[in-house]
Amino acid sequence: MGQRAVRSRRTLFEREGELAAADEALNELTGLREDGTEASERPRGALLAFAGRAGIGKTTLLAEVRRRAAAQGCTVLSARGGDQEQGVAFHVARQLLQPQLAGIAEAELRAQLGSWYAIVGPALGLCAPSEGAPPDQQGLRDGLDWVLTHLAVQRAPMVLVLDDAHWADPESLSWLAAFAPRVEELPLLLAVAYRPDELPDHVEAFRSLPGRAGLRPLDLEPLSAAAVADLVREDLGTQADDVFCRECWAVTAGNPFEAVELTAKVRDRGLVPTEEGAHLLRDLAAAVKGSGLIARLERLGASTVRFAWACAVLGTEIPPTLAAAVAGLGSEEAADAADALRGARILAGADTLEFVHPLIATAVYRAIPAAVRVALHGQAAWCVINEGLGPSAAARHLMETHPEGDNWVVQQLRAAARETQRAGAPDAARRYLARALREPPPLKERAAVLHELGCASLLTEPATTVNHLRAALEEPITDPELRHNIVYRLSQVLAHSDRLAEASETLAREIRMTGDARVRLRMQSEQFMWDAFRADEPDSPARSRRLTRLADRLTGRDLTERYVIGLRAWDATLRGEPAHVALHHAERALAGGIRWAEADRGFEVPVLVAFTFMYADRPGRTEELFAAGIADFESQGWHGAHLSFGYTLLGYVRYRRGRLAEAEDFARAGLRLAERVGARTPVHWYAVGVIIQILLARGRVTEAAQIGEEHAFGAPFPAAVTFPDVQTVHGELLLARGLTKEAAAELEAAGRRLDPRGMRNPSWCPWQLHLARAEKHDAPERAVATALEAVHRARQFGAPSAVGQALRAAADVSSGSTRVKLLEESVSHLERSPAAYELACALVALGTELRRSGSPKEAAEHLYRGLDAAMQCGADGLGDEARAELAAAGLRPRRLHSTETDTLTARERAAAALTARGRTTTEVAEELGTEEPTVVRLLSAVYRKVGTDRTGLAAALGQQTAR
């Protein structure tokens, strides 16, 4: 970037403490002691934050930090915010990172950035945005984190300097504020300066970040009278007497910028710096800023003033030819004006012009008459487009013009919004489109602009999106495709806002109006999908019959037909039709391919198809589909709600398979992402419900209850159907805590909600199984009837895991020989299923019952098997229960044997070793220098190869070391 010209000075007055902090940080970054010898500790980064009002010397201080960093061999990245560029998305991020990457050939850049190329490339101006769906904001931030982290490691030690952070664009500043806490773990010093009273509200977190050594940001104070005297004498000579120097301090209030400018004025006027001339200082100081500065500028002539105005409108890094075009000056006249402004210390630079100080730029900009300022911004927009800089560069100028019904303005703003949104800055796109709407656009284009505005607001302001899209439908629309797209988007945002009934009704109205059979089918598929998630659907059985008739006559020739068939597979699962029927339709849906990251469709149907396989006891197929789906999300840069759903539900799949340690890792990763999205959103309900269910299976009831309390896991429950059903999970949690009456009430309420809708598959929602256990003591006969009805439903579905789980629940509320028979049958079914945790539960229950009925030999066999299975699953509570039963039978537990670990790769072994020492997946990722999802995948491979879980890793690795 073109650096702001700062007059070279021999001394930084009264900044010894700040410079000492900078030297300490640089020494720790480069691994040097103060005497220049190498330190024993590894180099580490830091945040160095300077705060102070305008002109206090922040820029000069940062320039010195840059100089010292370069002298120590550091790679230095610099950027600064600009008053006129605050609305330009990623302006600061581009200043920082683009120079490090822009000179690399495209093929090499693609190889270097890998899957992040298409995600961060458009934001950094390295490539054009793709035509697909844009990355979500969190995904883009993750990509920028990756780029900066790798640059810091590859080009260490690195110093990143950000001046005027209060004027940085929201996208860049939010990213850096989130990244800043990580710098201490990297060979990176982040030095930031800002005006605290002008820091935007959207980065309050940035204000609270600690500075060097845990201190708050270092506040720069005005110079003392003695320091100003030293400054004056350094510039004007030792003849400057005490009275003159003290008056300089008084009229500048110790502001370094004003003091420097004042001494320059004294030199220009030839004023002798003694007491006799001190009375003139106040007038000279007034000429440095505000109206005095403007009066000085006006004396330079009309063309020079106009050139200065054009520069103020353009902001920073100003090409002289562009400034001349905006000012309407010829090349010679513009060159003369630039020379005059440089002589007056208003501008600096040659190939690229800059204002000497932001205070001067602000004063000049504010002095432009309002009407002229608007006209200059309009002229700047035209000139930027003519220079080939594109609509995005022109958009910030168009934002400052008055609406005049100019369709050219509308088209440029729409084009800028498309570019900006695809680059991952929907808020900036929304601002451009809102301004385009005020222009206003021609009547025939108004609906399209409203549609684009709604799409731009989708992720950040769903309620506003609904209003925009409904307004669009009220406009005259001549393009049927546009109308249909508006309806699809409106139904989607209503559904994701937990307004499923409205989503369904919106589609129903449009279905009645459209005459296109293919469009009608697409809308029917969308309506079927949202109805499938509605907890308050008035006639679910009738909808199921319609869906069955429709799906049975479709062949799956296009994506819409495959979506309908996929919904049929899921409906069969919910209703508990035979599992082979559900699987048949699931395979039909997949025959032509269903991607998770389709730009104009949700990912719900692909997920439902994948879960059909899981509930039908084919979790391996489910995991294949999830792996492909999550890869789709990551390649698109969707790291918010989409990726949270992916990890959470993959954790649920592992839970169903009895791989509880892996399940917990995935679910916690999903929960962390869900917390970014927001509390009580659908993705948050899913994540909390899954983690609670996993913790209960692991025997950590207190921790599960704490998670529920922290996340307000309770009524009112969402209107959308979830899996696991959150109300049922809440009932299960109450039951685990011994609150049987409250649990029974909650589970009965879940049954009243689901049963009339025909959702009767206990494999999907085992509310009856838990209800039977809750009723056992107060209503034992009813408990048996409830459990046997669930067994009947499970047998209809036919999946061994469903039947085995239901039989175990029936055994729990039965007694005597019936209990033993039910448990034996449960074990028989579960042995043919992938439900390892359920099998462990059934084995321990059967062994316990056999011990109590006087069959110690058979009991021991089942208890040993149950203990081994529980430990393999990571069900610590169940393992303790099995050990207690073995002890009661006078038997000692067998030692857990792990399999050979020689097959582990180096990275798998490293991840396993750190995990065995109690590190979290986040800590392991930081230690290995990789991403957390990669760690989760490494650990999954470890658990699979070693044949144990997190609990058994230490023993398994220890045995390997001994060998």
Automatic annotation (TrEMBL):
<dbReference type="InterPro" id="IPR027417">
    <property type="entry name" value="P-loop_NTPase"/>
</dbReference>
<keyword id="KW-0067">ATP-binding</keyword>
<dbReference type="Pfam" id="PF13191">
    <property type="entry name" value="AAA_16"/>
</dbReference>
<dbReference type="InterPro" id="IPR000792">
    <property type="entry name" value="Tscrpt_reg_LuxR_C"/>
</dbReference>
<protein>
    <submittedName>
        <fullName>AAA family ATPase</fullName>
    </submittedName>
</protein>
<dbReference type="InterPro" id="IPR036388">
    <property type="entry name" value="WH-like_DNA-bd_sf"/>
</dbReference>
<dbReference type="InterPro" id="IPR016032">
    <property type="entry name" value="Sig_transdc_resp-reg_C-effctor"/>
</dbReference>
<keyword id="KW-0547">Nucleotide-binding</keyword>
<feature type="domain" description="HTH luxR-type">
    <location>
        <begin position="901"/>
        <end position="958"/>
    </location>
</feature>
<dbReference type="InterPro" id="IPR041664">
    <property type="entry name" value="AAA_16"/>
</dbReference>
